[in-house]
Specification:
The complex is a heterotrimer of chains A (368), B (510) and C (330).
Chain A: E1 10-14, H1 20-46, H2 50-62, H3 65-90, H4 98-116, H5 122-151, H6 155-177, H7 207-226, H8 228-238, H9 240-245, H10 250-277, H11 288-298, H12 303-326, H13 333-353, E2 354-358
Antiparallel strand pairs in A: 1-2
Helix pairs in contact in A: 1-2, 1-13, 2-12, 3-7, 3-8, 3-10, 3-11, 3-12, 4-5, 4-6, 4-10, 4-11, 5-6, 5-10, 7-8, 8-10, 11-12, 12-13
Chain B: E1 6-17, E2 20-31, E3 34-39, H1 46-53, E4 61-66, E5 69-71, H2 76-81, E6 84-87, H3 99-103, H4 113-127, H5 142-155, E7 160-164, H6 172-187, E8 191-195, H7 199-205, E9 208-213, E10 216-222, H8 228-236, E11 254-264, E12 270-280, E13 283-288, H9 295-302, E14 310-316, E15 322-324, H10 330-335, E16 340-343, H11 358-366, H12 378-390, H13 407-420, E17 425-429, H14 437-452, E18 456-460, H15 464-470, E19 473-478, E20 481-487, H16 493-501
Helix pairs in contact in B: 11-12, 12-13, 13-14
Chain C: H1 2-31, H2 39-58, H3 66-94, H4 99-125, E1 132-133, H5 135-141, H6 152-159, H7 163-181, H8 183-193, H9 195-200, H10 205-231, E2 235-236, H11 244-254, H12 259-274, H13 287-292, H14 295-309
Antiparallel strand pairs in C: 1-2
Classes of the chains: A mainly alpha (368), B alpha/beta (510), C mainly alpha (330).
């Protein structure tokens, strides 16, 4: 005969939906635990006392006004990429090609700066940069979208491949344009003439990308929640069949949304090259195309929550960066800490949608 | 009772999902050598109760005794070990595997496909099943899939067999065959539970009926000593009348003309062949046929969702002007001023968005209105409130995601929205699939009301009794061909059943 | 031509082995319905764990025992990648987290972990170059069959590799057999296709997902170890492993979830990966090398599109790939 069955210690029950403040609290607690955990790990690796860890992190992110500006600028870039990927995600199109779309946008911006720098007036060069880099990003978004719409090609992998194709293109042009020959770098473009450098706003060399990020955030919020196209995106994401049934052209929506997604990524490339770095390298996007996927998801694809999520990630990154510089660790320490925070945030979602129901104590033992 | 021994005894079983109580202190006995019908409206907790017996759900409270011994069923595996097998309403089969692979799934020991195939063949011979053990599931018809499910349960030597709406997708002939097998199994001493909404099946098959209402156990009766009205009253908790109205069509005019329509699916198989008929305004055209004989393709072709090979579909205006619908997508058809309202077979997969609330689901049909870039949610909100009021949809609020509603309520939301578009033609497929009697009659009423307003209704149904009572004319499809168009008032069930299965029947237009 | 092939094939094979480990591991994982985008991170962790083990053994001052010199890094690698697999499973299976997101986080973490400890070890040895060399350990790992050199070209193509290379091929064939010919394989496929059905059939879905994913990670981790200890001759430098983890995931699709096909396909990819070294560019046009390096990605993209164009039922991904499973879902 079979063995005796005992009731399990606990089983998992789906929650009916938590009030927003409770789910917010769960996330908050998770981040808190994660921070404590990161502190402990840092203490173990560096030997500094835990309080100092957080102190250093805060100094790293907000220590001086320059640091604050850089932190804000970094946030704006990560936020912009996250916003760019979001419409695709709401459509359940796993665009992990943000990296490539940013790179190709940056590359075309650099191309305009280098090739047109001596031929056209500055304003026209900048105009060309804006148009071409947005277009290039859009093309990089269009290609996987087209395959997806036409033959349902797995977009996770096709966008990934597009990343590497973009990287190799940048590598190719890096050699073509390298200054001086053999250095393997392009160096600052138009250092003397400043042609193609995007203008400073109110005399600040940080403000422009922040303003762009604010504008795009508001635009994306309205677009996704209040526009007809945003509604179409949600319908396609929920059920392609239903979308077809009400006459939404799914293929068109996929392609249109990815054009938008890619275009905003291209714009980020433009900012990185034309405004922040004034050069292009294969690592200019710095893996933010992937981090943005996480930011967007953590925020439940809500543009407003993304402001907070991207700030958290950048804060961790800058803070951990400060720790590694001060204590002679290498920069990858930041990745480890970011990873840990992410694991906690990912894990805590469970407690928002499910609860554990423990075995009830019974009057008599059920053992027969 | 009758000196029979209980195979299963449930005591005070309670199960809640979030704030909904699916089963409330249910106590029930299932006896050996007996077929028990479990009756109840949608959402009365029949399936949930049986799922706890088969290990899918775990009860919050209560005890389960199998053969007199208390047991805890934590998983389907535990259920198998106790000899409990369940054939689910939605088949639990894996499409890319063969019948044999599906049947032996989950068993232990060295994998030996040959030996398993032989044993399956023996079971099939014993009970008279016809399946090819090496066929992949995705190549099978619905009734073949069901056979695989039943063989699977028998292969494991189950003594307690639970079937959840097994006949929903079968033809009358297939149903009879199934019942014969079930009776044979009962005589073998097995305990059988069948969940069904079809009263005549309850009468012809079961020995005893047990009734659930709103999650609670109401009582049981010996089938021979009761009748349909009594059972229905017990289920609903008040007396109901069971007559479908059939008003005479008022001033019928041709509205949709289908001419020589041929459709092939993606694999190149002919799904519709040279189909021609006319649907009139103010009339219900019933479409009968065994599952998979082209009903779905026919409706989808009219609605612009299906690629066709040849033929025509005309929309005929009141003044007799014809407009070709083929080649237009659903949006274009709507923009022409032709309104086709289509209740698809698969409600949540196609037609509604499970994670969105009622308002957003109403918006699906109307969001394109106007030139504004932005959506207007005022109207859909009113419509949602109206549908909830008019059709008595049970929902906490109109901002509840529809996936949280029960099947009948989901259906009402869908039909309500489609009808709100004031259609000229209403296409419905399996509009009452899985709905209880009360909800079904509510839907029939809605359809009849549309008919009275001059809408041409094309109604694909699976319950022949209903088709015969509701339709003005009945078109019988068989293997993608029109096997006959009969007058609904004079047609008889056997005749329709024969036409459904016999190829190349005579075509006599009523 | 013959001389070219003699030179090219062994290098392509050597280049393909890490990909083969990665893709075999990912195929097993995906068959259970888990899309683990963390494989690149897992391979980094596998590699660095092996490196750490070897580093401390080499620097422990004890006499180096060849057997231990192989066993210690091997065990460290397996444990490191197993822990990554457990982390992924805990989040996606037990906590039902989104698989794409968890995978990407795992990659961020794993690559960071590899580079951090790699960097720390480099600091420890105070070397001038940003890398650590474990030549002693590597010499044991890269031992090839003694008679290989005696067999000339034939020997070079078939017998010149180290035991980890052969192990990769054996694992791929065993995986193929288990998936298609055993009950465990049947159950695993069922879990990946339709966990609901598998569960109703009495298969322990959670167990299968955990075991398949963890075993998959351990196999993938070996790919990282092979790369450092054999291919790179025991030299660890940060980021050197590059994008091989992603290519391994692409290979899974390329081979339509068949580990035995993966053996050939990974060598093909290995060949594409180093093809640029064999296409003459001339000294003034070194930049074209960068374009040739694009070939494996372009080919993967093309294959991806072609396989999706000719969609056949058997060649589709496991139906529940990427979806969490909760039995009481309604």
């Amino acid at each position: 005969m079979h063995e005796k069955h005992r009731e399990p210690l606990f089983h998992i029950v789906k929650r009916d939906g938590l009030p927003w403040y409770r789910s917010l609290m769960i996330r908050f607690v998770a981040i808190l635990i994660a921070l404590v955990f990161c502190g402990i790990i840092t203490t173990i690796t560096t030997g500094i006392n835990p309080l100092e860890v957080y102190g250093t992190m805060i100094t790293g992110a907000f220590g001086t006004s320059r640091k604050i500006w850089i932190t804000l600028q970094n946030i704006s870039i990560l936020l912009l990429i996250s916003l760019a990927l979001t419409p695709a995600f709401r459509m359940r199109f796993w665009n992990i090609g943000g990296e490539g779309q940013v790179l190709i946008g940056g590359l075309t911006a650099a191309a305009c700066m280098i090739c047109l720098g001596n031929k056209l007036p500055n304003a026209l060069v900048i105009l060309c940069m804006i148009i071409t880099s947005i277009a290039a990003g859009a093309v990089w978004g269009f290609i996987p979208a087209f395959f997806k719409a036409k033959w349902n090609t797995n977009e996770t992998l096709s966008t990934l491949m597009m990343n590497y194709i973009a990287t190799q293109l940048v590598a190719f042009y890096t050699v073509v344009w390298e200054v001086p020959k053999g250095s393997g770098k392009i160096g600052i473009i138009n250092q003397d003439s400043n042609i193609g450098w995007l203008p400073q706003v109110f005399g600040s060399k940080y403000l422009l990308s922040i303003i762009v990020a604010v504008v795009i955030t508001i635009f994306m919020w309205i677009y996704l929640y209040y526009s007809k196209q945003g509604y179409e995106i949600s319908v396609v994401g929920e059920s392609e069949k239903t979308a077809r049934y009400v006459g939404i052209k799914v293929e068109k929506v996929i392609i249109r949304t990815m054009l938008l997604s890619g275009a905003i990524c291209g714009l980020v490339g433009l900012l990185l090259v034309g405004f922040i770095n004034h050069t292009v390298t294969t690592t200019i996007a710095g893996g933010q195309g992937f981090t943005a996927v996480l930011v967007s998801w953590m925020s439940k694809f809500n543009p407003l929550s993304m402001i907070f999520s991207s700030s958290l990630i950048i804060f961790m990154n800058r803070g951990a960066g400060e720790i590694s510089t001060n204590f002679g660790l290498n920069q990858s320490f930041a990745d480890i800490l970011t990873g840990i925070i992410l694991f906690f945030i990912i894990g805590c979602e469970f407690f928002i949608s499910y609860k554990l129901s423990f075995r009830k104590k019974k009057g008599k033992e059920e053992e027969a | 009772m009758d000196g029979k021994t209980a195979a299963v005894t449930l005591k005070n079983i309670t199960k809640t999902f979030g704030s909904t109580v699916a089963n409330d202190k249910v106590s029930l006995e299932i006896n050996k050598g007996e077929i028990l019908s479990l009756l109840g409206e949608n959402g009365s907790g029949k399936t949930t109760l049986m799922n706890m017996l088969s290990g899918i759900y775990f009860p919050d409270e209560g005890q389960i005794f199998i053969n007199g011994k208390e047991e805890v069923i934590r998983s389907p595996k535990d259920a198998f070990d106790l000899g409990i097998g369940m054939v689910h309403q939605h088949f639990k089969l894996i499409d890319v595997l063969t019948a044999t692979e599906n049947i032996i799934l989950g068993l232990k020991g060295k994998l030996n496909i040959k030996a398993a195939t032989k044993k399956i063949q023996e079971i099939c011979d014993k009970y008279g099943f016809e399946i090819d053990p090496n066929q992949k599931i995705y190549d099978m018809t619905v009734s073949q899939k069901q056979t695989v499910e039943i063989v699977k349960v028998l292969y494991r030597g189950a003594d307690i067999l639970i079937l959840d709406e097994p006949t929903a997708v079968l033809t009358p002939q297939e149903t009879e065959k199934l019942f014969a097998v079930l009776r044979k199994m009962r005589d073998d001493g097995k305990a059988i539970v069948i969940i069904t909404h079809k009263m005549h099946e309850v009468e012809s098959l079961s020995d005893r009926v047990a009734v659930l209402r709103k999650g609670a156990y109401v009582g049981d009766m010996v089938t021979k000593e009761t009748n349909v009205t009594e059972m229905t009253n017990m289920m609903v908790g008040r007396s109901v009348t069971l007559n479908i109205e059939r008003p005479d069509p008022v001033d019928p005019k041709p509205r949709i003309e289908v001419k020589n329509l041929t459709v092939r699916n993606e694999e190149g198989v002919v799904k519709l062949e040279d189909v021609s008929f006319t649907a009139n305004s103010g009339e219900i055209l019933g479409i009968a046929g065994i599952s998979g004989c082209g009903q779905k393709e026919l409706l989808e072709a009219i609605a612009g969702l299906q690629v066709t090979e040849s033929g025509h579909v005309y929309y005929i205006e009141d003044n007799g002007e014809k407009e070709e619908l083929l080649g237009k997508d659903p949006l274009a058809i709507a923009e022409m001023g032709v309104t086709l309202s289509f209740v698809p077979e698969d409600r949540l997969g196609m037609g509604l968005l499970g994670n969105m609330d009622l308002t957003d689901n109403m918006l699906l049909r109307s969001f394109r209105k106007g030139h504004s870039l932005f959506t207007d949610k005022k109207e859909p909100k009113h419509l949602a409130e109206k549908v909830v009021d008019d059709l008595e949809v049970v929902t906490p609020s109109i901002s509840t995601p529809v996936r949280k509603l029960s099947g009948g309520n989901v259906q009402k939301v869908l039909v309500g929205r489609e009808i709100a578009a004031a259609p000229k033609v209403l296409l419905t497929a399996y509009a009452v699939r899985g709905l209880d009697i009360n909800s079904s009659y509510a839907i029939y009423d809605l359809i009849n009301q549309q008919k009275k307003e001059g809408v041409a209704v094309i109604f694909v149904g699976e319950d022949l009794d209903v088709l015969l009572e509701l339709s003005d004319r009945i078109l019988v499809l068989c293997g993608g061909k029109v096997n006959g168009i009969l007058d609904g008032r004079t047609a008889d069930k056997n005749e329709v059943g024969m036409l459904m299965t016999r190829m190349g029947g005579t075509q006599d237009n009523a | 031509m013959f001389g070219f092939l003699m030179n090219f094939i062994p290098r392509a094979v050597v280049q393909g082995i890490p990909l083969l480990y990665g893709s075999t591991g990912e195929i097993i994982t995906q068959k259970s319905g888990n899309l683990n985008l963390g494989i690149p991170g897992v391979m980094y962790v596998g590699a660095i764990s092996g490196v750490i083990g070897a580093f401390f053994y080499e620097n422990s001052g004890a006499a180096i025992n060849p057997f231990l010199a192989v066993l210690i890094p091997l065990l460290c690698c397996l444990i490191g990648s197993l822990l990554m697999g457990l982390l992924y499973c805990f989040l996606t299976v037990s906590l039902r987290a989104n698989q794409n997101v968890t995978g990407l986080a795992l990659t961020t973490f794993g690559v960071g972990f590899g580079n951090f400890f790699g960097g720390s070890l480099i600091k420890l040895v105070n070397s001038d170059v940003p890398s650590i060399a474990l030549s002693t350990t590597s010499s044991y790992f890269s031992k090839s069959l003694p008679f290989a050199s005696k067999l000339g070209g034939f020997g070079k193509i078939f017998f010149s590799y180290s035991f980890l290379a052969y192990l990769a091929i054996i694992i791929a064939f065993v995986a193929s057999y288990v998936l298609n010919r055993t009950r465990a394989g049947l159950h695993l496929r069922a879990v990946g296709e339709n966990p609901n059905t598998a569960d109703a059939a009495g298969i322990n879905v959670t167990k299968y997902k955990y075991v398949a994913t963890c075993v998959g990670c351990m196999i993938a981790g070996l790919g990282g170890l092979y790369y450092v200890m054999d291919y790179a001759c025991g030299v660890w430098s940060n980021d050197a492993f590059g994008d091989r983890g992603w290519l391994a995931i692409a290979l899974v699709i390329f081979t339509i979830w068949r580990p035995n096909l993966s053996v050939l396909a990974s060598f093909l990819f290995g060949g594409l990966y180093i093809l640029y070294l064999y296409i003459p560019t001339g000294m003034d046009h070194m930049e074209y090398q960068e374009i040739y390096k694009m070939i494996p990605y372009v080919v993967t993209l093309v294959v991806l599109v072609i396989t999706s164009m000719r969609s056949k039922r058997e060649n589709q991904p496991p139906a529940s790939l990427g979806l969490p499973y909760f039995r009481e879902e309604r």
